[in-house]
Amino acid sequence: MRKILNCLIVATIVALSCQCGKDASRQQADNMLSDIRTLIDQRRLNLAKIEIDSLHRLYPKLIEQRKEAQRLQDTITLLEAERTQVFVDSMLQILHPQTDSLLKLFRYEPATVYESCGKFVHPALTTLRNTDRCFLKAQVSEDRSLLVSSYYTGRRINHTGISLHAGDNTVQAQGHNHSFDAEQHHEITSLDTDNGVMLLQFVSANRQQRIRVDLQAGSDTKYKYYLQDSEKQALEQTLELYVRMQDIQKLELMNRQANELIRLKTKQK
Fold first, then answer.
1. What digits encode the pLDDT tens for the residues 209-231?
2. What distance in Å separates the CA atoms of residue 264 and residue 262, rounded to the nearest whole number?
């Protein structure tokens, strides 16, 4: 009987200890929830999210407290989306007028039969203005992509490489060559966006210097010429237009994502 009584006493002590431990855990989790609410009220949202992650990690078995933590997480998500909306709106109010002003320097070329959208081209870089000469053509399409090509007229050289030189500085890009004959031999080497941006950034950074263009086939330089000052300015302005239009596109995407989050979270409430 004494052994049985001792076992009952031990079991009771263990049960009480477990209950006390659970009560202490609930109290600590409730305190954390209170701190999280305070952080949210103070708009210290990153710290609040860290506390929510800690609560889930420390108290995986406290279902009610974790549900409340998730509700607070949803509140944070909604507040962040609303803050994004405010930020995007303020930035677009700055960028749209700046971009519209810049667009006045460009000529709009409608899409041809083989194209899906029109393009904005600086007058100094239009094909019509540069007939029968070698030049770099840069344009920004309506879908906000950058198109950079090397135009060459002369004897066949099949150039796929374009390198720019300004003093001791050099940059080189590779593209895809398309050749055709119309009274004279013509070649157009088109670059992908990364290579195009790289060349225009080089022009912008070295616009005050004389910039030489080398047209290459493999490792051999087949033709050389120098950019005119008007070309350098036009290429720099094309890069600026592309960057601004890309910024607007990213902001518009952020705004759509924020709107969708707000719609979802509002619907869940």
1. 999 999 999 889 999 999 999 99
2. 5
Within this chain, do residues 126 and 206 fall inside the same structural domain, yes or no? yes
- How far is residue 121's CA from residue 141's CA, in Å, rounded to a whole number? 9
In this structure, the answer to whether residues 146 and 185 fall within a common structural domain is yes
Written as six digits, the tokens of 64 are 């009610």
Q: What is the pTM of this model?
A: 0.83
Would 22 be classed as within a structural domain? no
Domain finish residue from 100, 120, 148: 100
Q: 59-88 pLDDT, tens per residue?
A: 999 999 999 999 999 999 999 999 999 999
Residue 105 covered by a domain? no
Say whether both 140 and 33 belong to one domain.
Answer: no
Buried b / exposed e along 40-64 (16+ C-beta atoms within 10 A): beeeebeebbebbeebeeebeebee
Task: Provide the number of structural domains found in the chain.
Answer: 2
Task: Find where tokens 């004389």 sit.
Answer: 210
Q: Residue 95 is part of which domain span?
A: 28-100
Say how far apart CA 212 and CA 177 lie, in whole Å.
20
3-state secondary structure of 65: helix
Any bridge partners for residue 146, and if so which? Answer: 140
DSSP element (H, E) containing 130: none
Residues 163 and 38 in one domain: no
SS3 category, 60: coil
**Separation CA 65–CA 59 (nearest Å):** 8
